[in-house]
Amino acid sequence: MTVLSRRAVNRATLARQLLLERAELPVPTAVHHLVGLQAQTPQTWYVGLWTRLRAFDPVAAGELLVGRDLVRLPAMRSTVHLLTAGDALAVRPLVQPVVERVTMGAFGRRLRGVDRDALVAAARALVEEEPLAAADLGRRLAERFPGHDPAALAQGARAWLPMVQVPPRGVWGRGGRALQAPLDTWLSARPDTPLDARPGTRLGPAAAATAEDLVLRYLAAFGPATVRDVQAWSGLTRLREVVDGLRPRLRVFTDADGAELVDLPDAPRPDADTPAPTRFLYDYDNLLLSHADRRRVLGDPGTVDFAAHGYAADSNLQPASVLVDGTVAATWRVTVDRDGARLAVRGFRRFTAREVADLAAEGAELLRFLHPDRRPVDVAVT
Protein backbone atom coordinates (compact mmCIF):
# COMPACT_ATOMS: atom_id res chain seq x y z
CA MET A 1 0.00 0.00 0.00
CA THR A 2 1.32 3.44 -0.93
CA VAL A 3 2.58 5.51 1.98
CA LEU A 4 1.97 9.26 1.88
CA SER A 5 4.41 11.36 3.87
CA ARG A 6 2.98 14.09 6.04
CA ARG A 7 4.32 16.65 3.58
CA ALA A 8 2.58 14.84 0.70
CA VAL A 9 -0.68 14.82 2.67
CA ASN A 10 -0.18 18.51 3.37
CA ARG A 11 0.29 19.38 -0.29
CA ALA A 12 -2.75 17.33 -1.31
CA THR A 13 -4.91 19.10 1.26
CA LEU A 14 -3.62 22.53 0.25
CA ALA A 15 -4.42 21.76 -3.38
CA ARG A 16 -8.01 20.81 -2.50
CA GLN A 17 -8.29 23.93 -0.34
CA LEU A 18 -7.22 26.23 -3.21
CA LEU A 19 -4.17 27.27 -1.20
CA LEU A 20 -1.39 26.20 -3.56
CA GLU A 21 -2.65 28.54 -6.25
CA ARG A 22 -5.49 31.04 -6.18
CA ALA A 23 -8.39 29.76 -8.24
CA GLU A 24 -10.41 31.57 -10.89
CA LEU A 25 -13.82 30.49 -9.64
CA PRO A 26 -17.11 32.27 -8.99
CA VAL A 27 -17.70 32.68 -5.27
CA PRO A 28 -20.67 30.26 -5.10
CA THR A 29 -18.66 27.60 -6.94
CA ALA A 30 -15.77 27.99 -4.50
CA VAL A 31 -18.06 27.91 -1.46
CA HIS A 32 -19.73 24.79 -2.81
CA HIS A 33 -16.39 23.10 -3.49
CA LEU A 34 -15.19 23.88 0.05
CA VAL A 35 -18.50 22.61 1.49
CA GLY A 36 -18.87 26.01 3.11
CA LEU A 37 -16.67 28.20 5.25
CA GLN A 38 -16.99 28.44 8.99
CA ALA A 39 -18.47 31.89 9.55
CA GLN A 40 -19.02 32.35 13.27
CA THR A 41 -17.80 35.91 12.88
CA PRO A 42 -19.71 38.00 10.34
CA GLN A 43 -16.69 39.44 8.49
CA THR A 44 -13.47 37.43 8.83
CA TRP A 45 -14.52 34.66 6.41
CA TYR A 46 -13.98 37.13 3.56
CA VAL A 47 -10.23 36.66 4.16
CA GLY A 48 -10.76 32.94 3.60
CA LEU A 49 -12.06 33.62 0.10
CA TRP A 50 -9.53 36.37 -0.64
CA THR A 51 -6.65 34.02 0.13
CA ARG A 52 -8.11 31.34 -2.18
CA LEU A 53 -9.55 33.22 -5.16
CA ARG A 54 -8.11 35.50 -7.81
CA ALA A 55 -9.66 38.94 -8.22
CA PHE A 56 -11.96 38.34 -5.26
CA ASP A 57 -14.52 41.12 -4.82
CA PRO A 58 -15.85 41.21 -1.24
CA VAL A 59 -18.63 43.65 -2.13
CA ALA A 60 -19.99 41.28 -4.76
CA ALA A 61 -19.65 38.37 -2.33
CA GLY A 62 -21.63 40.27 0.28
CA GLU A 63 -24.38 40.91 -2.24
CA LEU A 64 -24.75 37.15 -2.61
CA LEU A 65 -25.94 37.11 0.99
CA VAL A 66 -28.42 39.88 0.23
CA GLY A 67 -29.60 37.97 -2.84
CA ARG A 68 -29.89 34.75 -0.76
CA ASP A 69 -27.50 32.81 -2.98
CA LEU A 70 -25.35 32.36 0.14
CA VAL A 71 -26.57 31.99 3.72
CA ARG A 72 -25.05 31.73 7.18
CA LEU A 73 -26.50 29.12 9.53
CA PRO A 74 -25.44 26.39 11.98
CA ALA A 75 -24.23 23.29 10.14
CA MET A 76 -21.10 21.16 10.56
CA ARG A 77 -20.08 20.78 14.21
CA SER A 78 -23.17 22.93 15.01
CA THR A 79 -21.09 26.00 14.12
CA VAL A 80 -22.25 28.80 11.85
CA HIS A 81 -21.16 28.18 8.26
CA LEU A 82 -21.40 30.13 5.04
CA LEU A 83 -23.13 27.81 2.57
CA THR A 84 -24.69 28.07 -0.85
CA ALA A 85 -28.47 28.07 -0.80
CA GLY A 86 -28.52 24.60 -2.30
CA ASP A 87 -26.07 23.20 0.22
CA ALA A 88 -27.96 24.77 3.11
CA LEU A 89 -31.07 22.86 2.08
CA ALA A 90 -29.22 19.63 1.30
CA VAL A 91 -26.56 19.45 4.00
CA ARG A 92 -28.30 20.88 7.07
CA PRO A 93 -30.76 17.92 7.36
CA LEU A 94 -27.82 15.52 7.35
CA VAL A 95 -26.01 17.29 10.19
CA GLN A 96 -29.22 17.99 12.10
CA PRO A 97 -28.34 15.30 14.70
CA VAL A 98 -25.08 17.15 15.37
CA VAL A 99 -26.83 20.47 15.94
CA GLU A 100 -29.31 18.80 18.29
CA ARG A 101 -26.64 16.85 20.18
CA VAL A 102 -24.52 19.93 20.83
CA THR A 103 -27.52 22.01 21.86
CA MET A 104 -28.99 19.37 24.14
CA GLY A 105 -25.62 18.86 25.75
CA ALA A 106 -25.64 22.48 26.85
CA PHE A 107 -29.35 23.20 27.31
CA GLY A 108 -31.09 19.83 27.56
CA ARG A 109 -31.85 20.04 31.28
CA ARG A 110 -33.41 23.47 30.91
CA LEU A 111 -35.58 22.23 28.05
CA ARG A 112 -37.10 19.33 29.95
CA GLY A 113 -40.85 19.36 29.69
CA VAL A 114 -40.88 21.54 26.56
CA ASP A 115 -42.86 20.05 23.71
CA ARG A 116 -40.55 20.13 20.71
CA ASP A 117 -43.25 20.49 18.06
CA ALA A 118 -44.98 23.24 19.99
CA LEU A 119 -41.72 25.14 20.44
CA VAL A 120 -40.88 24.88 16.76
CA ALA A 121 -44.35 26.04 15.74
CA ALA A 122 -44.22 28.99 18.13
CA ALA A 123 -40.71 29.97 17.05
CA ARG A 124 -41.58 29.70 13.38
CA ALA A 125 -44.62 31.93 13.79
CA LEU A 126 -42.49 34.57 15.51
CA VAL A 127 -39.52 34.62 13.13
CA GLU A 128 -41.70 34.40 10.03
CA GLU A 129 -43.43 37.56 11.21
CA GLU A 130 -40.05 39.31 11.53
CA PRO A 131 -36.43 38.17 11.95
CA LEU A 132 -35.48 38.16 15.63
CA ALA A 133 -32.31 38.11 17.69
CA ALA A 134 -31.93 35.12 20.00
CA ALA A 135 -32.54 37.19 23.12
CA ASP A 136 -35.77 38.66 21.72
CA LEU A 137 -36.94 35.28 20.46
CA GLY A 138 -36.25 33.73 23.86
CA ARG A 139 -38.22 36.39 25.69
CA ARG A 140 -41.23 35.99 23.43
CA LEU A 141 -41.09 32.21 23.65
CA ALA A 142 -40.95 32.44 27.45
CA GLU A 143 -44.35 34.14 27.35
CA ARG A 144 -45.74 31.00 25.71
CA PHE A 145 -43.69 28.55 27.76
CA PRO A 146 -43.73 30.09 31.26
CA GLY A 147 -41.29 28.72 33.77
CA HIS A 148 -38.64 27.89 31.17
CA ASP A 149 -35.35 29.69 30.62
CA PRO A 150 -35.60 32.14 27.68
CA ALA A 151 -32.02 31.47 26.54
CA ALA A 152 -32.64 27.71 26.49
CA LEU A 153 -35.88 28.18 24.55
CA ALA A 154 -34.06 30.26 21.94
CA GLN A 155 -31.33 27.67 21.63
CA GLY A 156 -33.85 24.86 21.35
CA ALA A 157 -35.58 26.75 18.56
CA ARG A 158 -32.22 27.29 16.85
CA ALA A 159 -31.52 23.56 16.99
CA TRP A 160 -34.90 22.23 15.92
CA LEU A 161 -35.83 24.91 13.37
CA PRO A 162 -33.07 25.63 10.82
CA MET A 163 -32.63 29.40 10.79
CA VAL A 164 -30.29 31.72 8.92
CA GLN A 165 -28.70 34.93 10.15
CA VAL A 166 -30.13 37.55 7.81
CA PRO A 167 -28.33 40.53 6.23
CA PRO A 168 -27.05 43.13 6.72
CA ARG A 169 -25.10 41.06 9.27
CA GLY A 170 -22.35 39.33 7.33
CA VAL A 171 -22.39 41.75 4.40
CA TRP A 172 -18.95 43.21 3.65
CA GLY A 173 -18.33 46.43 5.55
CA ARG A 174 -21.73 46.45 7.22
CA GLY A 175 -22.91 45.58 10.70
CA GLY A 176 -26.13 44.40 12.24
CA ARG A 177 -27.62 42.27 14.95
CA ALA A 178 -27.73 38.50 14.55
CA LEU A 179 -31.37 38.33 13.44
CA GLN A 180 -32.76 34.91 12.56
CA ALA A 181 -35.29 33.78 9.97
CA PRO A 182 -36.39 30.27 8.93
CA LEU A 183 -34.15 28.81 6.25
CA ASP A 184 -36.96 27.52 4.06
CA THR A 185 -39.03 30.69 3.99
CA TRP A 186 -35.91 32.85 3.58
CA LEU A 187 -34.87 30.94 0.48
CA SER A 188 -38.43 30.89 -0.87
CA ALA A 189 -38.05 34.63 -1.44
CA ARG A 190 -35.07 34.30 -3.80
CA PRO A 191 -35.65 36.06 -7.15
CA ASP A 192 -35.20 32.80 -9.08
CA THR A 193 -37.52 30.78 -6.84
CA PRO A 194 -40.07 28.73 -8.84
CA LEU A 195 -43.64 30.04 -8.92
CA ASP A 196 -44.83 27.32 -6.57
CA ALA A 197 -42.48 28.61 -3.86
CA ARG A 198 -43.10 32.36 -3.86
CA PRO A 199 -42.55 34.58 -0.81
CA GLY A 200 -44.99 33.71 1.92
CA THR A 201 -44.80 30.01 1.15
CA ARG A 202 -42.33 27.41 2.31
CA LEU A 203 -40.02 25.43 0.13
CA GLY A 204 -40.80 21.77 -0.06
CA PRO A 205 -38.27 19.26 1.31
CA ALA A 206 -34.98 19.52 -0.55
CA ALA A 207 -33.09 16.50 -1.72
CA ALA A 208 -31.04 16.03 1.41
CA ALA A 209 -27.46 14.97 0.96
CA THR A 210 -26.62 11.43 1.96
CA ALA A 211 -23.78 10.53 4.26
CA GLU A 212 -22.04 9.06 1.21
CA ASP A 213 -22.37 12.37 -0.63
CA LEU A 214 -20.92 14.25 2.30
CA VAL A 215 -17.93 11.93 2.66
CA LEU A 216 -17.08 12.24 -1.03
CA ARG A 217 -17.38 16.02 -0.96
CA TYR A 218 -15.27 16.18 2.19
CA LEU A 219 -12.51 14.22 0.49
CA ALA A 220 -12.66 16.52 -2.54
CA ALA A 221 -12.11 19.52 -0.26
CA PHE A 222 -10.01 18.16 2.61
CA GLY A 223 -8.63 14.74 1.66
CA PRO A 224 -6.92 12.40 1.85
CA ALA A 225 -8.29 11.57 5.28
CA THR A 226 -9.09 9.04 7.94
CA VAL A 227 -12.60 8.18 9.07
CA ARG A 228 -11.88 10.11 12.26
CA ASP A 229 -11.02 13.16 10.17
CA VAL A 230 -14.40 13.11 8.40
CA GLN A 231 -16.13 12.77 11.75
CA ALA A 232 -14.13 15.63 13.27
CA TRP A 233 -15.13 17.94 10.41
CA SER A 234 -18.80 17.07 10.27
CA GLY A 235 -19.52 16.26 13.90
CA LEU A 236 -21.22 13.07 12.72
CA THR A 237 -20.33 9.71 14.26
CA ARG A 238 -20.32 6.10 13.07
CA LEU A 239 -19.08 6.91 9.59
CA ARG A 240 -16.91 3.79 9.36
CA GLU A 241 -19.75 1.86 7.72
CA VAL A 242 -20.31 4.68 5.24
CA VAL A 243 -16.65 4.76 4.23
CA ASP A 244 -16.55 0.97 3.99
CA GLY A 245 -19.49 1.07 1.59
CA LEU A 246 -17.63 3.57 -0.57
CA ARG A 247 -14.38 1.59 -0.78
CA PRO A 248 -14.94 0.41 -4.37
CA ARG A 249 -14.96 4.11 -5.34
CA LEU A 250 -11.94 5.14 -3.25
CA ARG A 251 -8.17 4.77 -3.17
CA VAL A 252 -6.53 3.72 0.06
CA PHE A 253 -3.17 4.92 1.38
CA THR A 254 -1.38 4.93 4.70
CA ASP A 255 0.19 7.93 6.34
CA ALA A 256 3.64 8.10 7.90
CA ASP A 257 2.26 6.74 11.18
CA GLY A 258 0.54 3.79 9.53
CA ALA A 259 -3.01 5.15 9.72
CA GLU A 260 -5.30 4.36 6.81
CA LEU A 261 -6.18 7.26 4.53
CA VAL A 262 -9.00 7.14 1.99
CA ASP A 263 -9.23 9.42 -1.02
CA LEU A 264 -10.89 10.03 -4.35
CA PRO A 265 -8.99 8.24 -7.12
CA ASP A 266 -8.57 11.29 -9.36
CA ALA A 267 -8.18 14.00 -6.72
CA PRO A 268 -5.00 16.11 -6.91
CA ARG A 269 -2.04 14.74 -4.97
CA PRO A 270 0.88 17.01 -5.88
CA ASP A 271 4.46 16.00 -5.33
CA ALA A 272 5.58 16.52 -1.75
CA ASP A 273 8.19 19.02 -2.95
CA THR A 274 5.62 21.27 -4.64
CA PRO A 275 6.22 24.85 -3.44
CA ALA A 276 3.52 26.21 -1.12
CA PRO A 277 3.10 30.01 -1.13
CA THR A 278 2.66 32.15 1.96
CA ARG A 279 -1.04 32.36 2.80
CA PHE A 280 -2.97 34.26 5.49
CA LEU A 281 -5.85 32.37 7.11
CA TYR A 282 -8.70 33.84 9.12
CA ASP A 283 -9.49 32.92 12.70
CA TYR A 284 -12.09 30.23 11.92
CA ASP A 285 -10.55 28.80 8.77
CA ASN A 286 -11.79 25.26 8.25
CA LEU A 287 -8.33 24.17 7.11
CA LEU A 288 -7.35 24.16 10.78
CA LEU A 289 -10.58 22.62 12.10
CA SER A 290 -11.42 19.75 9.79
CA HIS A 291 -9.12 16.88 10.76
CA ALA A 292 -8.83 14.81 13.90
CA ASP A 293 -5.07 14.87 13.38
CA ARG A 294 -4.21 18.49 12.64
CA ARG A 295 -0.49 17.89 12.20
CA ARG A 296 -0.86 18.00 8.41
CA VAL A 297 -1.13 21.80 8.72
CA LEU A 298 -0.04 22.57 12.28
CA GLY A 299 3.18 20.63 12.01
CA ASP A 300 4.87 18.74 14.82
CA PRO A 301 3.66 19.83 18.28
CA GLY A 302 7.03 18.69 19.59
CA THR A 303 8.72 21.65 17.93
CA VAL A 304 6.14 24.37 18.70
CA ASP A 305 3.96 24.82 21.77
CA PHE A 306 0.81 25.47 19.77
CA ALA A 307 -1.38 25.61 22.87
CA ALA A 308 0.65 28.59 24.09
CA HIS A 309 -0.20 30.38 20.84
CA GLY A 310 -3.95 29.75 21.19
CA TYR A 311 -4.37 26.52 19.23
CA ALA A 312 -6.59 24.07 21.09
CA ALA A 313 -7.20 20.58 19.74
CA ASP A 314 -10.78 20.52 21.03
CA SER A 315 -11.76 24.06 20.00
CA ASN A 316 -13.60 25.44 16.97
CA LEU A 317 -11.68 28.69 17.35
CA GLN A 318 -8.11 29.04 16.17
CA PRO A 319 -6.06 32.24 15.84
CA ALA A 320 -5.72 34.09 12.56
CA SER A 321 -2.77 32.15 11.16
CA VAL A 322 -0.12 32.27 8.47
CA LEU A 323 1.01 29.33 6.36
CA VAL A 324 4.69 29.34 5.47
CA ASP A 325 5.85 26.43 3.31
CA GLY A 326 2.43 24.87 3.82
CA THR A 327 2.25 24.75 7.61
CA VAL A 328 1.17 27.17 10.32
CA ALA A 329 4.20 29.26 11.24
CA ALA A 330 2.77 32.49 12.64
CA THR A 331 -0.29 34.40 13.79
CA TRP A 332 -1.33 37.80 12.51
CA ARG A 333 -3.21 40.87 13.70
CA VAL A 334 -4.23 44.12 12.02
CA THR A 335 -4.53 47.47 13.76
CA VAL A 336 -5.78 50.73 12.25
CA ASP A 337 -5.16 54.30 13.35
CA ARG A 338 -5.14 57.76 11.78
CA ASP A 339 -1.84 57.04 10.05
CA GLY A 340 -3.06 53.90 8.29
CA ALA A 341 -3.19 50.13 8.68
CA ARG A 342 -0.54 47.97 10.33
CA LEU A 343 -0.05 44.23 10.24
CA ALA A 344 1.82 42.38 12.97
CA VAL A 345 3.01 38.86 12.15
CA ARG A 346 4.24 36.86 15.13
CA GLY A 347 6.34 33.90 14.05
CA PHE A 348 6.90 30.62 15.86
CA ARG A 349 10.43 30.30 14.48
CA ARG A 350 13.12 32.39 12.84
CA PHE A 351 12.23 33.10 9.22
CA THR A 352 14.67 33.23 6.33
CA ALA A 353 15.15 36.49 4.46
CA ARG A 354 13.08 35.10 1.57
CA GLU A 355 10.27 34.11 3.92
CA VAL A 356 10.25 37.56 5.53
CA ALA A 357 10.02 39.15 2.09
CA ASP A 358 7.13 36.87 1.13
CA LEU A 359 5.33 37.61 4.40
CA ALA A 360 5.77 41.34 3.88
CA ALA A 361 4.54 41.21 0.27
CA GLU A 362 1.50 39.05 0.98
CA GLY A 363 0.81 40.98 4.17
CA ALA A 364 0.75 44.27 2.29
CA GLU A 365 -1.80 42.78 -0.11
CA LEU A 366 -3.89 41.68 2.87
CA LEU A 367 -3.85 45.21 4.28
CA ARG A 368 -4.93 46.63 0.93
CA PHE A 369 -7.77 44.11 0.82
CA LEU A 370 -8.99 44.73 4.36
CA HIS A 371 -8.52 48.50 4.38
CA PRO A 372 -8.41 49.83 0.82
CA ASP A 373 -9.09 53.34 2.11
CA ARG A 374 -6.10 53.27 4.48
CA ARG A 375 -2.44 53.47 3.60
CA PRO A 376 -0.50 50.29 4.47
CA VAL A 377 1.94 51.68 7.02
CA ASP A 378 3.87 48.66 8.16
CA VAL A 379 4.10 44.88 8.04
CA ALA A 380 6.09 43.85 11.10
CA VAL A 381 7.40 40.29 11.16
CA THR A 382 8.73 39.16 14.54
From TrEMBL:
<dbReference type="InterPro" id="IPR009351">
    <property type="entry name" value="AlkZ-like"/>
</dbReference>
<protein>
    <recommendedName>
        <fullName>Winged helix DNA-binding domain-containing protein</fullName>
    </recommendedName>
</protein>
<dbReference type="Pfam" id="PF06224">
    <property type="entry name" value="AlkZ-like"/>
</dbReference>
